[in-house]
C-alpha cells in the first residue's frame, strides 16, 4: 500500500510516524512537485492541482479536516482535479465536536449573561446593572446539523436553552426543533442568537447577510465558526450600526489572517479569534484516517465520504 501525504505547513514527521505505526504495511511519503509515482491513497489539506489531477490508480483521497470546501471548489473550477470515481473522505468529529461545544458555550454564556456589555461598562468606569436575559426569550438557532452542529445543538438544549436547527433536510434531534431548507424564514423568526455551522457551498455562500439579519429579533447575536465566506462583512457592520445586531463572535474570515487595517479590529461589538474553534487533533485524526483506509482496503463501509454535488 502506497500513501502520499501533503499539508502546506504541518511538520510532516510526526504524521508520517503516526500513520506508519498504525498502518505498518504502508509505504508513506511526503508528496513533492513532480512526484507522479503510484499511490493508493492521498492524505491532504489544500493540495496543489498537480498532486491529484490525472493521477492513475488512486483509490481514495482523505482530507485532514472536516471542511472540504477548498478541495471541492478547486474541482468545480478545474474539472478533473479529483480523478473520476475517486472518493473524497473528510474527518468526522475526530475530537472537534467537544472543542466546538466549548467555544459556542463560552460565547453563548458571555452574551446570555451580558458579560460583554459589563466589560464595556468596566472600561468606561461605570457601575450599572443590566436586566438579565431570560431563557424564554433567548432562542438559539443552529444553522447546519451535521455531526458538529448536532453536537452543539444537543448540548445547548440540555443546558436549558430553546434551540432550533436548520439544515437542507429536517433532522430529528431530541430537544431541538428542526427546520428544513424551505423553512429558513420560519427558523429565523424570533431567534435571538445564530450559531453558523453550515458547510460552505454555492448555496450557502453569503447566507449571513442583511436579509437574514433583518429576520432575527432586534438586538440579536451572531456566532460564525464555519467559513468566512458565509458572512457578508459590510452587512454585519451595517446591522451592528443600526442595532439590529448587538454583537458577533467570529472565528473564520474570508481572508486569513485578517488584515491589520480590517474594520473588524476597531469594533468592540465583534469578538475575533484566529480560526481556533476546533483544531485538528493529530492522534484522533490519524486514528480515523487509518481506520478508513483499512476499511476501504478490505471492502468495508467507510464514514465521511463527500457528496461532491452537494459539497459535503
UniProtKB/TrEMBL annotation:
Its EC number is 1.1.1.79, 1.1.1.81. Gene3D superfamilies: NAD(P)-binding Rossmann-like Domain. One of its GO terms (molecular function) is NAD binding. The keyword Oxidoreductase applies. Keywords: NAD, Oxidoreductase, Pyruvate. Pfam families: 2-Hacid_dh_C. The keyword Metal-binding does not apply. It comes from the Bacteria. InterPro entries: D-isomer_DH_CS, D-isomer_DH_NAD-bd, NAD(P)-bd_dom_sf. This is Glyoxylate/hydroxypyruvate reductase A. It comes from Budvicia aquatica. The lineage of its organism: Bacteria, Pseudomonadati, Pseudomonadota, Gammaproteobacteria, Enterobacterales. The gene is ghrA.
